[in-house]
Amino acid sequence: MPTLNYSQLAPILIVLGGALLGVLVEAFLGKKQRGPVQIVLALGTLALSFVWLLRIRNDVSATAAMGSVATDGFGIFLQGAVLVLAFLALLLIADNDHFAPAASALPGSEEEAQALLSGTRTTEVFPLTLFAVAGMMLFPIATDFITLFVALEVLSLPLYIMTGLSRRRRLLSQEAALKYFLLGAYSSAFFLFGIAFLYGYSGTLSLTDVGTANIFSVGSPAFLYIGMVFLTIGLLFKVGAVPFHSWTPDVYQGAPTPITGFMAACTKIAAFGALLRIFYGAFFLMQFQWKPFLTTISIITMVLGAIAAMSQRDIKRTLAYSSITHAGFLLAGVVALNKDGLAASMFYLVAYGFATVGAFGIVTLVRDSSGEVTDLSKWAGLAKKSPLVSVAMAIFLLSFGGVPLTSGFISKFSIFTAAYQSGNIAIVVVGVLSSAIALFFYLRVVLMLFFQEAPTDGVSVVIPSIMTRIAIGVCAVMTLILGVYPSLLLNLVNTMATLVH
């Protein structure tokens, strides 16, 4: 009989249980009762899962499910980060004005018009979010390839659906969902094909055993190299690294903005968690084969993301290319291949997550008569209409740019220091230059907010709900606290930066 160790798996099982209860709520409660119940259920589920995670935080060397899951310090930290950021993103998602009342209806059809008139709400988004969170929690702690693949699909499929649920610009949203689904299917195929080749090389599905097999050269090296490349392609797609980034701007722009913030923050944590575990664990002994490849990808990603962002005129596309640039910075932590690189990546993922959820929360507030306004030219002079919202957005943008006294500065300093110590000078030089280029377009938006005249075309900042205010406020405060007192988190990540091999 398999030994599952339910205590170690409980945080994930709680989230899955909450998602299943959400499905039952959709089936048996009336339209008016669903919304409040789903919000309370989803937030309560994430809070309960986080509490249980704190309960097992000291058991940092255990394995569960017959060794296919490792609850080490690294895994527990990333699971906690996913839960916290997902909780904040759910506060934004709870403002159901962002979602189509009848997602299956054709845009502009009579069915959609009737759904709008009846006040129908798409509350299915809450269990879908919980299913995605469960996959995100499993992905960075999986230690065999089958569990990795299952986690990848569990986190991806709900995101494909939620991308197409935007209330406005329905065709753009559906197009984004289709692109995301098709490209995601291709990336999953690469991932699975890579697993097959690695199994053919080593005769095992365990990450640890694949690394051990390389010592004894048990199989054909061609299988090993092809498997490594294909598996890496599948993971690089999820983190949005060049040249596997083409889905990112379209999906970020087309998806409902709270979903964009959720996937931008939490998916990056899960994907980089898996990437770090694989390359720091299974592929550690093969570093001379993959380091040049990942170094090149990191450099190209940093440069292309920063340059492409400069020409964008849509705030969501700008943040999408910003996300690509940050993926390049985070790859520097993977290439560093030392404990400092692991700890710096963990800090970076959390700091970037808070700023990202907060920035997309701000985007939901800038509207005109037709809904959200994402055209940057219409954001000019926004500080005169809403100083607090503009200040919060400036904090997030300056953090993305790595300006001192924000969490972004500490993140970049830590990750470039780790890369320098490991001898990857090229990444550090290109990273600093890319940061300087990226700072240009962040400052451009800040100057636009505060020093340009506001257009007279009805653009305004809506008064946010209490949940949206909490989410944006917490993100802004954490962005500043982690910049002024980074030791609060740095000490924790240095302690938790341990991997079970």
Characterization of the model:
With 501 residues, this protein is mainly alpha-helical. The chain has one domain (6-496). The chain has 20 helices and five strands. The protein has helices spanning 6-28, 31-55, 73-93, 110-118, 125-138, 145-163, 170-202, 207-216, 221-239, 247-254, 257-282, 287-310, 315-336, 339-363, 382-385, 387-401, 407-421, 425-451, 466-484, 487-496, and strands at 61-64, 69-72, 366-368, 371-372, 460-461. The strands form two sheets. Strands 4-3-5 form a three-stranded antiparallel beta sheet, with no helix packed on it. Strands 1-2 form a two-stranded antiparallel ribbon. The longest helix is centred in the middle third of the chain and has 33 residues, at 170-202. It is globular and about 70 Å long. The mean pLDDT is 87.
Number of strands: 5
SSE class: mainly alpha
N-end to C-end Cα span: 24 Å
SSE string, helices as H and strands as E: HHEEHHHHHHHHHHHHEEHHHHEHH
Coarse shape: globular
Q: How many structural domains are formed by the residues?
A: 1
- Tell me roughly what share of residues is in helical segments: over 70%
Put simply, the count of helices is 20
Please describe the biggest sheet, giving its number of strands, its sense, and whether it closes into a barrel: 3 strands, antiparallel
Ranges where pLDDT stays below 50 over 5 or more residues in a row are none
